[in-house]
């Protein structure tokens, strides 16, 4: 028994000795023999928790059939970095790297030889092939990390709506467009790169992000095919007439849903660094104000008819000009027309006639109606930095100021305010809230749909129908001699031409104009309202010259694309 006991003790002791010897030998190989290999492996796959993987919610367009198309997403790739503290041969590392991807030698050597610096980025946004080739070099001190970055698959499609990211101080966040407006919903808690040793012992493949209840993805109202078509139209107008810029909005006048909205020139949000000025990233359709000219006349006529001071058949004697507060107000051509009707005021775009209707309304009532169209208010659109409309003249009670406001001069509006106001006539008399977001899908599983907000009634339905008839008449019988009349579809339109205000004020430019064009169809139950404008076009005097064909082409495209049935 004693022998067996002592033998067992010796056997156990021998086993412990052998186990300890194996551990010592293994540690020797790990720390001495294979030291460089494991340093390299750890170096390439481990960073401090301060280094983050970028993450952000997605933005989608929505096709007419309801399917989603990516507008803003994440793209995966690699960051290549160097650890100067352990990189033994910077020149050798440069030569090997440069065989895979061209890099600047001087910049690399400068970064690779920095003292007391464990991390310097050499290549960003490398694709999988390049990342793998560099990783296969197995150079101690050369690091390859997985990375994500913001990617816009459509390039410049709706770039002024989608916006871009950028730095403000140390914060990398949305700076323009929806990226900025919905920063709270799109922002994600960033996760640290995977720790190599944690992966060995815990088999951790991914780092879990901490989810917040407010995080989600955006589904926009933008229909990508319609958006692309509108952008092609804007580009063609700008190039044909050498305009400074051209903008457009296509919206449902009854719901405020925006199918397309853009201005040209545009930009590629994937390469904002190529732009000379950050001004191009702003959205003039929402942020800038312009004197819109004669597209405002339908609002004046609507006010007069709704108040009962005029009808479509009301006549007056048009001398080509009138004197108000000692100042001369003229038609665009100053020609005397004699007795004309209110229909002629719209069809021939007569400033004197608009001022006449305003005088019958009186300053107070006219101002109340125009402010009722919400011209003094922001629309509340779900995009950042909406501009403030300049409508002091509507509140001045000075005759000449209100008379010129009746035909769109002396008041400056954002394009989004303009289309919202004109939608009142199109939809039967009520205000709607323009919006670009259809819904937000939150990570917690809840979807929030943007409600259709119907605001106050501004004019009676009968008034909107009467003015609509007048605008249809303009297309069918007057615009280019009625050549744009569509036998099976009723279309209501109004053109506009406005002198540009001199920079800094002090009057109007003699040879610079803003052309505008608004229309909706099918006119008595419109699915779309379209607003176009072009700034400082060359070689054409009036909006009817520059924008009629683009407008009608867009109408035909929408009819075919959405298979809209005839209404007459």
Automatic annotation (TrEMBL):
Domain called Penicillin-binding protein transpeptidase: residue spans:
249-540
GO BP, one annotated term: cell wall organization
Fetch the SUPFAM superfamilies from UniProt.
beta-lactamase/transpeptidase-like (SSF56601), Penicillin binding protein dimerisation domain (SSF56519)
Q: Tell me which UniProt keywords the record has, alphabetically.
A: Membrane, Transmembrane, Transmembrane helix
* Cross-referenced Pfam families: Transpeptidase
The Swiss-Prot or TrEMBL record annotates one GO molecular function as: penicillin binding
Entries under Gene3D superfamilies matching the protein: 3.30.450.330, DD-peptidase/beta-lactamase superfamily, Penicillin-binding protein 2a (Domain 2)
Q: Where in the cell is it found?
A: Membrane
Q: Which residues cross the membrane?
A: 12-30
Q: Name one GO cellular component term.
A: plasma membrane
Q: What is this protein called?
A: Penicillin-binding protein transpeptidase domain-containing protein
The species this protein was found in: Candidatus Zambryskibacteria bacterium RIFCSPLOWO2_12_FULL_39_23
């Amino acid at each position: 028994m004693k022998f067996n006991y002592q033998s067992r003790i010796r056997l156990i002791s021998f086993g412990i000795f052998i186990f300890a010897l194996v551990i010592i030998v293994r540690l020797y190989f790990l720390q001495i023999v294979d030291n460089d290999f494991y340093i390299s492996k750890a170096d390439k796959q481990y960073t401090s928790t301060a280094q983050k993987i970028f993450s952000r919610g997605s933005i989608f367009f929505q096709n007419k059939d309801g399917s989603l198309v990516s507008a803003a997403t994440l793209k995966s790739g690699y960051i290549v970095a160097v650890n100067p503290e352990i990189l033994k041969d910077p020149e050798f590392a440069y030569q090997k790297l440069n065989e895979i991807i061209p890099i600047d030698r001087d910049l690399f050597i400068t970064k690779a030889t920095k003292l007391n610096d464990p991390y310097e980025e050499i290549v960003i946004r490398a694709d999988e092939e390049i990342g793998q080739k560099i990783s296969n070099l197995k150079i101690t001190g050369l690091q390859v990390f997985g990375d994500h970055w913001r990617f816009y698959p459509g390039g410049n499609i709706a770039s002024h709506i989608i916006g871009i990211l950028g730095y403000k101080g140390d914060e990398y966040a949305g700076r323009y467009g929806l990226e900025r407006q919905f920063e709270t919903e799109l922002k994600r808690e960033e996760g640290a790169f995977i720790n190599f040793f944690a992966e060995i012992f815990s088999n951790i493949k991914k780092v879990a992000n901490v989810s917040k209840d407010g995080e989600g993805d955006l589904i926009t109202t933008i229909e990508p095919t319609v958006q692309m078509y509108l952008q092609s139209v804007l580009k063609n107008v700008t190039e044909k007439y050498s305009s400074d810029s051209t903008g457009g909005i296509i919206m449902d006048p009854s719901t405020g849903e925006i199918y397309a909205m853009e201005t040209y020139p545009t930009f590629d949000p994937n390469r904002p660094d190529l732009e000379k000025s950050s001004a191009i990233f702003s959205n003039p359709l929402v942020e800038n104000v312009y004197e819109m000219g004669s597209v405002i006349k339908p609002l004046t006529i609507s006010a007069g008819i709704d108040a009962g001071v005029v009808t479509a058949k009301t006549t007056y004697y048009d001398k080509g000009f009138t004197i108000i507060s000692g100042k001369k107000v003229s038609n665009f051509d100053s020609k005397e027309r004699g007795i004309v009707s209110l229909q002629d005021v719209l069809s021939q775009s007569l400033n004197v006639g608009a001022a006449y209707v305003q005088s019958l309304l009186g300053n107070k009532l006219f101002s109340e109606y125009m402010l009722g169209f919400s011209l003094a208010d922001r629309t509340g659109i779900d995009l950042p930095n909406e501009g403030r409309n300049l409508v002091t003249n509507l509140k001045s009670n000075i005759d000449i100021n209100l008379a010129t406001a009746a035909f769109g001069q002396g008041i400056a509006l954002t394009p989004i305010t303009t289309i919202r106001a004109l939608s009142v006539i199109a939809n039967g008399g009520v205000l709607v809230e323009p919006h670009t977001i259809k819904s937000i899908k939150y990570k917690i599983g809840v979807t929030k749909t943007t409600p259709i907000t119907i605001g106050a009634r501004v004019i009676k339905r009968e008034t909107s129908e009467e003015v609509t008839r007048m605008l249809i008449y303009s297309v069918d019988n007057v615009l280019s001699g009625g050549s744009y009349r569509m036998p099976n579809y009723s279309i209501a339109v109004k053109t506009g031409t406005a002198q540009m205000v001199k920079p800094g004020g002090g009057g109007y430019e003699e040879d610079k104009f803003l052309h505008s064009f608004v229309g909706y169809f099918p006119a008595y139950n419109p699915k779309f309202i379209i607003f176009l404008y072009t700034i400082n076009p060359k070689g054409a005097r009036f909006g009817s010259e520059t924008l009629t064909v683009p407008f009608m082409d867009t109408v035909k495209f929408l009819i075919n694309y959405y298979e809209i049935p005839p209404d007459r």
